[in-house]
Amino acid sequence: MESPFGTIELSGFLSLPPWLATTISATIAASATAGMLWVWGRKRSAQRKANAPHSIATLIFEDGVLIDSKGDVDAVVAGALPPNKAQAVAHLSLRFADLPRKLAALGHYGVLSLDAPDAQQRLTVLRRGGLTRVDLVGLPGEGALPTRDDGILGALAAASPQVIWVEDDQGCVVWANQSYLDLLPPQVNLGWPLPSLFPAKANTASLATHEGKPRDYHISQISRGAQTMCFALDVTAQTAAEAARKQFLNGIAQIYAGLPMGIALFDRQRRLMQFNPALTDLTDLSTSFLLQRPSLAGFFDRLRASHVLPEPRNYLDWRAKLTSLEADGVLHSSLSETWHLGDGRTFRVTAQPYPDNAMAVLFEDISPEIRVTRAFRAEIDTLHGVIGALEEAIAVFAHSGNLVVANAAYYQMWSLPPDGVAPLSLETEFDRWHKQFSASALGAATAGLRQPENDRTPHVWSRLDPSTELRLSSIGGGRIMIGFRSLEARRLLEPEMTVRHIA
Fold first, then answer.
1. Which member of 11, 61, 203, 287 lies 3.0 to 4.6 Å from 132 by CB, making a disulfide possible if both were Cys?
2. Do 289 and 275 form a contact (C-beta atoms < 8 A)?
3. Angle at CA 241, nearest 5°, toward 239 and 245?
4. Do residues 31 and 100 both lie within one domain?
5. What is the pLDDT of residues 196-244, one digit of tens each?
6. Other CB atoms closer than 10 Å to residue 246's CB: what's the count?
7. Which residues 6+ apart lie within 8 Å of 27 measured at CB?
8. Which parts pass through the membrane (predicted)?
9. 293: Cβ–Cβ under 8 A, 6 or more apart, which residues?
């Protein structure tokens, strides 16, 4: 026996009359057909339900204030129920760009229906005087965007600390996040469109906070169809830091300009970055040449051509030394030289590299210092010559007792090597004198050492023995001069002095 489920063999199980077997077979076939129709109907019902629009959220306003809502409102208005209709319109206008304009043209009574650009949502607005009902429904179709994900993204934008807003093609603000709304003055009533805070198409702007403090913003825009998404980043700290940096650099530049030392600063590419007026005054390099930002090598080549750089014994080796100095970049490896120029000037030149590969070259005119040093040395040499020409053995001791200077007669008298390594002091010399003179005579001759400096009698000779005299004198600064002379030489000298005096 054939049935919709296959052949049914009944005779193998039990023997039925033909009419009863036919009845059972017909019943089974009818049941199978009914089951198939039921399953097909359930599928059709589910398909019709899936293809039918489904409500996402409903909001009811009275005189602009939200009085009731249901559904997934949180996914529509970015994280929180808006306190008034203006904010709800601002949120919804992100998906329905024509909403503000068409809502304004709707009047106090009417119905407005808008489909989203992706045809996945529909917004219906019913207005009856002061009452406004907003219905957001999802439309059937494959690949519909999940409203929960939309809500999460919207909540991120709304809660972002960065100021974000959306403008339509007319430049009106159709949506703004909470950071934008926080910048609005407290007395401003939120309406449509939202108040505009930033200039149109501006890249930077400055706004005053509620406390009156200015805040600086960097603005960027991204076009999205007829709308423009705008982002304002608070760069007040960066602006203040940049202003402080410029002020610091200006202060440094003013200090550089007032220094008598010539300064040339080279950047990490070894090109001239900054110089002060003293550099041109000292080196006679033209300002036009320096403004061309020459390299370090070109800078010294020009100095050499201008005869400001004394010709080294081997210029190539000198350049190699300078190159190795700039290559290692060690903070403590610097080059310091003294340049004696042909015009009589003397420069102290210092090249100091830094870890970031920059370099500072300093030029200091030390000609006055050199002249003073040379004059002082000449004076010292003259005094040494005068003291050395005296037959009197002279030794000068500092306030500390150390020997400052002694002439050749002193070294010869006491058989001391002129270039002796061992330091001499008043104490060691007293020991030496005691070996030749009596303690009583030496003590009487040097009694002035125990007296205040102002009470000492200068240039008084005291006899130490029949052939030697000593004198003790204060010469200022706590220094003491002690001289020894031979009485025999004095006797030989006095007649000559008398004759010269008489003559």
1. 61
2. no
3. 115
4. no
5. 889 888 899 998 887 888 999 999 999 877 788 899 999 999 999 999 9
6. 10
7. none
8. 20-40
9. 271, 272, 273
Task: State whether 76 and 223 are in the same domain.
Answer: yes
User: Is the per-residue pLDDT at 502 higher than 50?
Assistant: no
* Residue 239 maps to a domain: no
Per the structure, the complete domain to which residue 295 belongs is given by 259-365
Rg (CA), the chain: 54
Question: Shortest CA distance to 484 belongs to which of 409, 427, 402?
Answer: 409
pLDDT band at 265 (very low <50, low <70, confident <90, very high): very high
Q: Which of 318, 340, 365 is the last residue of a domain?
A: 365
pLDDT tier for residue 262 given thresholds of 50, 70 and 90:
very high
Q: Give the residue from 101, 104, 100, 110 showing the smallest Cα distance to 132.
A: 110
Q: Assess whether 157 and 46 both reside in one domain.
A: no
Q: Domain holding 420: CATH number?
A: 3.30.450.20
CA–CA dist 430, 411 (Å, integer)? 15
- Section 115-121 average pLDDT: 75
Number of domains in the chain: 4
Same domain for 205 and 70, yes or no, is: yes
Location of structure tokens 């400001």: 308
- Summarize pLDDT for 73-86 with one digit per residue, the tens: 765 555 544 556 66
Cβ-in-10-Å burial (0-12, 13-18, 19+) of 122 comes to: middle
Domain identity same for 336 and 224 = no
